[in-house]
Structure formats: C-alpha cells, structure tokens
Amino acid sequence: MENLNQEQAAVAQAQTSENAENKKASRKVFVKTYGCQMNVYDSDRMTDALSNDGYESTDTLEDADLVILNTCHIREKAAEKVYSELGRIRKLKEEKAKDGKDMMVSVAGCVAQAEGGEISRRAPVVDLVVGPQSYHRLPELLKQAKEGQKVVETEFDIEDKFKHLATPSKEAVRKRGVTSFLTVQEGCDKFCTFCVVPYTRGAEVSRSVEQIVGEAKQLAAAGVRELTLLGQNVNGWHGAGADGREWGLGELLFELAKIDGLTRLRYTTSHPRDMDDALIAAHRDLDILMPYLHLPVQSGSDAILKAMNRKHTRDDYFRLIDRIREARSDIAMSGDFIVGFPGETDQDFRDTMDLVERVGYASAFSFKYSPRPGTPGALLEEQIEENVKSDRLAELQALLAHQQQAFNASLVNQRIEVLFEKMGRREGQLAGRSPWLQPVHVNAPAELYGEMATVEIVGSSANSLEGRLI
Ligand code: SAH
Ligand code: SF4
Ligand code: F3S
Q1: What is the pLDDT of residues 318-366, one digit of tens each?
Q2: pLDDT exceeds 50 at position 449
Q3: CA of 199 to the centre of ligand 1 (A)
Q4: 3-class SS at 127?
Q5: What separation in angstroms does the CA of 454 have from each of 4, 156, 439?
Q6: What CATH topology corresponds to 161-408?
Q7: Relative to the alpha carbon of 203, which ligand is closest?
Q8: What's the CA-to-centroid distance between 117 and ligand 3, angstroms?
Q9: pLDDT for the residue 3
Q10: What does the domain layout of the chain look like in residue ranges?
Q11: H or E segment at 160?
C-alpha cells in the first residue's frame, strides 16, 4: 500500500498543502508526505490540528514558517530521502535567517518513530521529531520547540491519538476533493520478518464503529463521494460496536454503505490471513464496494513465505482468490512483491513468477528486499546479491507491467462507471477513476466534477484509460 507513484505523490502533495485562503492566518505550514496512504491521512490531520492553531497550508516551501516532513521507513531508500531533503532545507533556513526570518523544521512519521533523537543529531536543522501517535499534541510540542529546546516525542498511545485528533472543517474537506481516506486501524502485530511497521506504528489498534461511522458521515456531508478505509491490516479490523459486540470489516462496510452521499467504498491494505467470509460476502452483495482488492502475497514460494512469517502457503492464497472470484467475478487483483529475501533461490523466484502468471494482476508494486535494522530478516545470513535482486525485479516488473497493460486494454470498447475526481490536464477534460482504480481521462463539462458517469473506453495505455461520455 505504500510507495505512492508519481501521480499519487503529486495528489498527496496537493492534498496535504491545499492553500487555505485564510488571510487572517499569519503563519504558514508546508507538509511533505512520503510513504503510504496512512501518512497522507495523518498529514491532513496535522494540517487540521495546526489550522486550529492559526497556521495555513502552503505548497511553496520557501514561504513556510514551519516545514513538516512526514516520513517513511519501509526501505532504506525511503528513509535516506529524508536526509537529503533536510540538507536542502538547512540551506533554505540559513538563507531565510539572513533576512531575519525563522523557519521551524519538524520530522514526523515512521523515520521519526524509528530513529527518534538520532535525527536531530544527524541533522541539527531539525527542531522537532514527532512519531505517528503524537500528532494531536503537535501545537503543544511546537510551542516547546519554539522556546529553543530540541523536542523528541515518540510515545505509543494510538487510542489517545484518535480520541484527540482534530476533525477537518467542511471547507477543508471540500478543498481536498470528493475522495477521502479514513484510517480505521493502525499498527500491526504480525511481525513479518522483513517489515518495520510493527516497530514504527506499534501494536494493532482498531477504532470503534461509532468513531468510524461518525467520521464517514461528516465526510459525506461535506461532499466526499468515495471513501477508502485504511489500515496496515485493514481487513483485520475488529472494532467495538455500539451493541457491545465486536464487528469485522465486512459488517462495517455494510453499515457504511447506508450513508447518504457515499457512492464508492474501498479499503487497503489487506493480509491474506484476515480475508474472512463476511468480507467476501460484502464483495458479493455490496455494489458500492469497488471490485478491486489489494492483497499482497510478497512471494510465491512456500519456503520464503515461511521465512517471512506470513503464516500461509501459496495454495492457501490460490484457494482464497478462487473464493473471492466466485463471489465477485469481475474483481481485479493487486499486490505487493519482494524479490531477493534472504535465502531466495532461483526456484523460489520461479515460484513467484508462476504465482503471478496464475493469479493475473491488474496492478502491483514490487520491491528489492531492503534489510531493515531491528527486523529479524536483516540478521539472516544468506543475503542476496544486489545484481541478482535487480535482475529478478526487472523480470517480475516486466511481467506485471504486461499484465497491467493487458488488463487496461481489455476495457477498450466497454462501458464503465467513472467517478470524476479531478480537473483534467487539458482544457475541457476531467479525470476520474474506474471501479478498478485506473485513471480515466474524459472530455467532460466541469459540472460533472464529483459525479459518476457512464463512459465508453476508447483507448488504453500502460497506466490509464481514455474515455468518451455517452
Ligand atoms: N501491511 C501490508 C504491507 C505494508 S508495507 C501487508 O502486510 O502486506 C508495504 C509493502 O512494502 C509490503 O507489502 C512489502 O511488499 C514492502 N516492504 C515492506 N518491507 C520491505 C523491505 N524490508 N524491503 C522491501 N520491501 C518491503
Ligand atoms: Fe508489515 Fe507484515 Fe504487518 Fe504488513 S502484515 S505491516 S508486511 S508486519
Ligand atoms: Fe512507510 Fe510507515 Fe507507511 S514505514 S509504508 S509510512 S506505515
């Protein structure tokens, strides 16, 4: 679910720095978001908390009085990006100081949680380090930092976070557009041997039905049409209902489907082990639930799945996909893959290629294994050479790209429903998404923004579709 592609990253950037036209506000905050959708959600919550404190958002770094980097620690490259960005920010801060202007710098997110005080030692430009569970305390922490002390806050108290996080104004929701994320679950107890998330986000915590439905209604009333429920293991969500029972995600989706104004529901990211009958039934029975499922498998080899601590086999995964496709035949599959996990043989990699051939993916993310400090995988002896990882990744990505292109092409000449969620790149165009999450570009009047329309697909490319209104 992480690794925003360029387009998503641009959207995330725009979403996290929408330019409030509040002339009264005297201070400006620039938020840059890395990593997964949960960070996008959190960046918006930080902006909301700060707007109550007199900050308006800016998308121009040079104008900022406060810069927040909301970071990702999932792979080495992701974490290193932060330090190079901090280098640039240091120069800018020095320039501004010459004009007598101050700029506060904060590192938030998963690098903040994982590296804590080490960050300001390595990059003294940083005034405040704040982990993902402490964003509701941001105004107070900033105050401390302004008094001149280096502040590092990396406590784990997720329930506290959700209880106190600022809710956005109707105006703020409207500016962010007709699609929205809603975090329903955070943290992870699964401890896959390659992954930092259980260490950076803490133990798995589910929000209550009441909290989630309340937030969803508020978003819908402010104009949101498509809601994507988020969690590191979103299908493992199990929240308290007002009836005293514990609900599962399937049941929650049925409840959210009743909310006036919502026209689409999605959720991400799911773990194969948590895909239960009620959730599969929701895919069968709920038209509002989009036929697209991100269900990372990571590897097609049983030996590697075991070493990764995924706790299921490749056959379990095949059987699961059969059950899902029986319930909803047009469902499109998406996934994440890691190549070059320690000990991965050529045959293990062939098993992954074979799994991809058999499942057929509409889209997928794939990565070279990156040993992360503190995870069991990093201590394994049989680390794979970089050039082997690169070769395997190139081969896998070629197959996945071919499948994605073929899936896009299969929609040409078909009529599909598109939700228009952005102005198009060209004059007179709108951009929307298909039920299967593909971007669709259509010549359409601006009034259709936020609406659903039937579109005939007239062209396809590697990453998007072109459609015509009918
Ligand atoms: N909760 C999700 C994944 C969250 S991390 C799940 O269980 O599937 C997003 C993706 O990053 C993972 O699916 C995995 O493919 C990739 N990833 C995580 N740790 C990695 C590492 N150390 N090296 C390379 N890729 C990694
Ligand atoms: Fe990481 Fe595994 Fe948890 Fe996903 S399920 S967040 S890969 S530990
Ligand atoms: Fe990255 Fe943290 Fe998300 S490590 S993928 S930002 S949970």
Answers
A1: 999 999 999 999 999 999 999 999 999 999 999 999 999 999 999 999 9
A2: yes
A3: 13
A4: coil
A5: 28, 46, 14
A6: pyruvate-formate lyase- activating enzyme (3.80.30)
A7: 2
A8: 19
A9: 45
A10: 23-153, 161-408, 415-469
A11: helix 158-164
Atom of ligand 3 nearest to the CA of 3: 5
Atom of ligand 1 nearest to the CA of 232: 1
Return the CATH number of the domain spanning residue range 415-469. 2.40.50.140
Q: Tokens in use for 361?
A: 């993916």
Residue 183 is which amino acid?
A: T
Q: How far is the CA of 190 from the centre of ligand 2 (A)?
A: 6
Tell me the per-residue pLDDT of 88-141, one tens digit each, with 9 for 90 and over. Answer: 999 999 999 999 899 999 999 999 999 999 998 999 999 999 999 999 889 999
Topology adopted by domain 23-153: Rossmann fold (3.40.50)
Strand 452-460 with 415-423, pairing: antiparallel
* pTM of the full structure: 0.93
Q: Which residues contact 355 (CB under 8 A, 6 or more apart)?
A: 297, 300, 314, 317, 318
Q: What would the two tokens of residue 244 be?
A: 């005293």
Mutation test of ligand 1: which of 194, 230, 390, 392 has the most ligand atoms closer than 8 Å to its C-beta? 194
Tokens of 450: 């936020």
Q: How many CB atoms lie within 10 A of CB 190?
A: 17
Q: What is the pLDDT of residue 23?
A: 43
Cα 32 to Cα 108: distance, rounded to the nearest angstrom: 10
Can 23-153 and 415-469 be said to share one CATH topology?
Answer: no
